[in-house]
Please model this.
Amino acid sequence: MNATTKNQPIETAVNEIERIHQPTLEEFKHKIFPARKPVVITGKMTDWKALSLWSVDYLNTVIGNKEINVHVSHNKIFNVDPEAGFTIASKKMKFTDFTNWIVQEQKTDEHYYLQQSPVTITFPELVPDIEIPDYIDPKLFMITNLWIGTGGNVSPLHHDMSENLLSQVCGRKRVLLFAPQQTSRLYPFPAHSKTPHMSQLNIDQLDINRFPKFQKAQCIECLLEPGEMLFIPAFWWHQVYSLDQINISLNFWWKTHFKEYFTPPGRRLVAQIPGLIWQICKNFAGAN
Ligand SMILES: O=C(O)CCC(=O)C(=O)O
Model:
């Protein structure tokens, strides 16, 4: 990866992601999931109607003038506001106005991204076109989110507390991934802040004097193509770049095992949010 500073490029060690074709449920459960390493799963979305159906015209017909809530950015980096916690600046607009904006590649000051929209609530009409992967234990399943955007959008470096299958329908995404053990090299916001799961780094314009340890970070790079799923284990840091004009993905989140809270980012959260321990115990009890 070429991160850049004002003076010189920085070389951070990058490894390419492994791809596995149509692993069985047993392979996922006993090999892929326990390895706690991201992989791309190919050939698992072949039965999804979304792959052949979802074009802008189709989505406009099915969704039409529904009002949606899109996130807004002035520089295409869709950052949460560290003062406000989980909120990102947003705006309500008609779905068709949003897709027109994408198609016309408008050179506006504002850029829009439909991020993390719970599909069963906001777009129930799209549910028949997708399938919850059978790798996910129904007792642990949390939510399916829809993401629609355009090339150049960036979801900056962060981790989630859930297991994730990021599933690509249209366009490609470039994803940079860092293991939980790399946390101290990624300069998260302080554990007591409102955004302990976000990194302070802008890895494309790195301030090397402030963040020197990033140079030692080990990264896995992935180019996710339509029809592919990326397994992102809980607490893995990731930064996601949307490529191509029309970019559509879904992510499936499910509850992680309590032992993942012993990883460095998990420990930071538990230390600051005591109520989390109770939640984790409940999750674990519910799944057994
Ligand atoms: O696709 C994106 O822009 C971000 C996805 C993401 O962060 C996630 O699936 O957790």
